[in-house]
Amino acid sequence: MITEVKNEVLYFDGCSTVELAEKYGTPLYVYSENAILKECNELKSCFLDKYENTRAAYATKAFSSIAMCKIMDREGFCLDVVSGGELYTAIKAGFPAEKIEFNGNNKLREELELAIDYGIGRIIIDGLQELESIEEICKEKNKKMNVLYRITPGVDSHTHDYITTGKKDSKFGIPLDEEVIYPAIEAAIKSPFVNFKGIHFHVGSQLFDNRSHLLALETTLQLVKKTKEKFNYDITELNVGGGFGVTYTDEQRKPYEYFLKPIMERIIEFSNETGMERPAVVIEPGRSMVAEAGISLYTVGSIKNIKGIRKYLSIDGGMTDNIRPALYQAEYKGAIANKMSRPAEDVVTVCGKCCESGDILIKDGKFAEAEAGDILAIFSTGAYGYSMASNYNKNPIPGVVLVKGGRSAEIIRRQSYEEMIARECYTEL
Question: Of these residues, 40, 69, 354, 355, which one is catalytic?
Answer without folding.
Answer: 355
